[in-house]
Each structure stands twice: as structure tokens, then as C-alpha cells.
Design brief:
Radius of gyration of chain A: 14 Å
Number of strands of chain B: 11
Largest interface: A-B, 20 and 19 residues
Structural class of chain A: mainly beta
Distance between the termini of chain A: 38 Å
Number of strands of chain A: 11
Oligomer: heterodimer
Helix content of chain B: under 10%
Distance between the termini of chain B: 36 Å
Largest sheet of chain B: 7 strands, mixed
Largest sheet of chain A: 6 strands, mixed
Strand content of chain A: over 45%
Number of helices of chain B: 0
Order of helices and strands of chain B: EEEEEEEEEEE
Helix content of chain A: under 10%
């Protein structure tokens, strides 16, 4: 079983729709949860970062974490064509010795249709 | 600030050739990383460095070598290129206030697309 599972899509939705992107994980040691956005032929860039269960909002983006279910989501409201990209979830834990491990999902390719 | 820069952007290698992928950051980050990204496979960590002169293996280090002689530069060397090394390679950097401890956000370069035929 992979530590992090992410539906690869592709996902196509009309402009203005609400988008829901999801990841599940199996390692309960993960403490920090991130969403990266990657435009075509570019490097990933950090979009959202959270470390607790619940919701974190930033503009049109909301990151949701449910540690009891080992499930994270990214919601995009009022989606725009400029949101078309691949979205990668990433999870991180830090050991008692201070070492860190960052594990990425495989990414979901999203297209917003004008 | 240019951030993280990578050269070349594209490269085609023949089997058995060698090459060095260059990575430079101007953010004075102490941590640097090399990842490869294959379709449907996500980002896999090849090597990382927590400071000049210190490097360590990641998840998929076989067939690669790295060095870190300066804070800014972290080149990745491919010896005896194989078709399995066809991939997109990303360099990233981050800052840690406690060397050897956890770091903050990773900033990625634009990537190098490598094809080995």
C-alpha cells in the first residue's frame, strides 16, 4: 500500500464550479499537510500548508484535514481557467531526532473549461 | 532574486553517456534537494544536502552522484546513463534554522527534461 494515494484524474470542470481534490494516507506519523500546484512544464509551488485537523482558508482555496480518517482535501471555489494545473498533495513528518520525510502524491491534473 | 535555477532545460543523452545537471539558488538556503518526476509516479527524492560538504541519499539514489561544495550550488551527476533515467529532474531548496533538523517550505526550480535513448 502506498503511503499517499491521490486520484490522478484527469478532472475537467466548467469555469465557476467548485473543485474538490483529495488524498488519503496510511502513515499516521504524518504531521504536516501541503498542497502544491504545478503548471505545465514548471516546478511545483506551495499553495497551502496546514498541520492540524480542520479547515484552512486562503482566498478561493480551502484545505481540509481529517486525521482520524487519514484524508485531506483541497477545495477551489469559483474556479478559473488559470487554476488549470496539476495539484500534488504532500505530507511530512519530523522524527524525534529532527529528521524529516516529505512524501508526495502522484498529482491530479485539473482543467477548468471556460 | 532568481530563486532556484536549473540548466539545461532539455537534454537528450545516448545510453552510457554521462552528464551533470546544474542547480543554483540565491536565497541562502542551507538545504537542497534533487527529485525526479515520472508520469503517474509523483516526486521521488534522489539526494539531498543539509549544508555545504554534507550530502545524503534519498529514496532513489542509484545511478546518480552529487556534491555540495558551496551553499549555492548542488549539481547532480549521471554516470553511464540508462533509459530508466529518462525523467524530469527538479532541484529544490529550503531553509532550516537548526542544521540537521526540519526545514520550511521547499522552493522548486523549473526542471530539466532528460531523455536517454
Amino acid at each position: 500500500q502506498k503511503e499517499v494515494e491521490q486520484d490522478p484524474g484527469p478532472l475537467s470542470v466548467p469555469e465557476g464550479a467548485i473543485v474538490s481534490l483529495n488524498c488519503t494516507y496510511s502513515n499516521s506519523a504524518f504531521q504536516y499537510f501541503m498542497w502544491y500546484r504545478q503548471y505545465s512544464r514548471k516546478g511545483p509551488e506551495l499553495l497551502m500548508y496546514t498541520y492540524s485537523s480542520g479547515n484552512k482558508e486562503d482566498g478561493r482555496f480551502t484545505a481540509q484535514v481529517d486525521k482520524s480518517s487519514k484524508y485531506i482535501s483541497l477545495f477551489i471555489r469559483d474556479s478559473q481557467p488559470s487554476d488549470s494545473a496539476t495539484y500534488l498533495c504532500a505530507m511530512r513528518y519530523i522524527s524525534n531526532f529532527g529528521n524529516e520525510k516529505l512524501t508526495f502524491g502522484t498529482g491530479t491534473r485539473l482543467t477548468i473549461i471556460p | 532574486n532568481a530563486g532556484v535555477t536549473q540548466t539545461p532545460k532539455f537534454r537528450i543523452l545516448k545510453i552510457g553517456q554521462s552528464m551533470t545537471l546544474q542547480c543554483t539558488q540565491d536565497m541562502n538556503h542551507n538545504y537542497m534537494y534533487w527529485y525526479r518526476q515520472d508520469p503517474g509516479m509523483g516526486l521521488k527524492l534522489i539526494y539531498y544536502s543539509v549544508g555545504a560538504g554534507i550530502t545524503d541519499k534519498g529514496e532513489v539514489p542509484n545511478g546518480y552522484n552529487v556534491s555540495r561544495s558551496t551553499t549555492e550550488d548542488f549539481p547532480l551527476r549521471l554516470e553511464l546513463a540508462a533509459p530508466s533515467q529518462t525523467s524530469v529532474y527538479f532541484c529544490a531548496s529550503s531553509y532550516s534554522s537548526h542544521p540537521g533538523g526540519p526545514s520550511y517550505e521547499q522552493y522548486f526550480g523549473p526542471g530539466t527534461r532528460l531523455t536517454v535513448t
